[in-house]
Amino acid sequence: MTRSGFPLLVPVLALTLALAAAAIGTAWAVESAAGRKDPAKAITSQLICPCSCGEILSGCVCETGKTMQGFVSDELKAGKNGEQITASLVSKYGEVILGAPKAEGFNLIVWVAPFLATLVGFVIAAFVLRRWVRRRSDLALAGAGSMPGAGGTGGVTVPGTRQAAAEQDLAAYRARAEEELRRLEE
Question: pLDDT by residue (tens digit) across 136-163?
């Protein structure tokens, strides 16, 4: 990437990566703290109630949710760990019960796509903004250059310059606008 390329891209990329790392770290810290205090809640907070309520299992108050919360507590008392309990529930209800997809295989797209989409959006926005700013400065130069004694070329366009291209664009827009106005009057 050149210096004149996307000057905002590097800071935006660094900020996006820092925010993603902070979000992942915070989620991991909260999950670890919750798991130490109440292992049943740590497990049920990662699962979705399979009935139509769509609530997170730890906060679900429907009959199915209460039954599953009891199942998790009973399994913990029986000596099973969280992975075994989760695997048992996934085998019974499917992966749809997981609050977040496993970060493996095709599911990685779910974890990576939002950050990539955000980066692509920032790149597109930087490109468009840069182009708008360049066009505005070109039009300003063209306006200053067309005024005699303004330090420009005195209204004379120099072929091959940005000013000449901007004036050609402006002339094309004027011609198009006049053509459309003429059609409206007919």
Answer: 887 777 666 555 544 444 445 455 677 7
